[in-house]
Design a protein that fits this description.
8 helices, two-stranded antiparallel sheet
Length: about 230
């Protein structure tokens, strides 16, 4: 259970986040609402609410830093951008309500989803600065920068860094090295599944970026859940 002080600090942070995101045009109004819902779900349903809330904060903060630095300002993110990255994590948390006895397993799945979302975000944004032309993950042929499904070594390293970040956050609190490895791998798998879906479906306009992000984040969550069950 959260103390009154902890709850007050979290609510203060959500209000500050909402105001800054709106004024800086980082998220539109609907996107801010969904982001706040994910944060509130973390403190409402998760067995370790502060840890899960902090994981959400780390994802949004690092994602925005990578998207806007240095001097690479992205367009205002909307509700679909947030849903694509956050819905799998939110769904996994919601499963704790009917199945509280599996709360810790679902919490690991939540971290897998967040790891995949952050890994994909860092891979895309930091990989943009690669000096070498990307290759299409489905064919390994060189493609123009910005091609859906294009990957670079820099982007892959950035994705690994994203998974390591969320994994280390979990490790600091639980000292569970097996779960740490699972979360890191969830990030790596999630971002590459995202790239594969982008190369196969998004390039052909069968799916859009939101769908591809959903697939990538879901892959991270599913991998973590399967590993926890095994």
């Amino acid at each position: 259970m959260l103390t009154e002080i902890e709850l007050a600090l979290i609510l203060f942070f959500l209000i500050a986040f909402s105001i800054i995101s709106y004024k800086k045009k980082l998220l539109n109004f609907e996107g801010i609402l969904i982001a706040d819902v994910v944060g509130l779900a973390a403190i409402t349903y998760a067995p370790d609410p502060l840890l899960c809330f902090f994981a959400v904060v780390v994802f949004f903060v690092l994602g925005e830093i990578a998207s806007n630095y240095p001097r690479k300002k992205h367009s205002e993110r909307n509700i679909w951008n947030v849903i694509g990255n956050s819905l799998p994590a939110l769904v996994v948390l919601s499963l704790i309500v009917p199945y509280p006895e599996y709360g810790l397993i679902f919490q690991l799945g939540f971290f897998g989803a967040v790891s995949a979302a952050l890994a994909d975000t860092l891979s895309s944004e930091i990989g943009y600065y690669s000096k070498k032309q990307p290759w299409l993950i489905s064919t390994f042929k060189r493609v123009p920068r910005g091609t859906d499904g294009g990957v670079t070594r820099l982007g892959e390293l950035a994705g690994l860094l994203g998974g390591l970040t969320i994994g280390l956050l979990y490790l600091i609190f639980f000292q569970n090295y097996i779960h740490f490895v699972i979360i890191v791998l969830a990030g790596v798998i999630g971002t590459n599944v995202d790239s594969i879906a982008g190369a196969i479906f998004e390039t052909k306009k069968v799916l859009n970026n939101t769908h591809v992000n959903l697939i990538g984040s879901s892959a991270g969550a599913i991998f973590a859940l399967l590993m926890a069950l095994l």
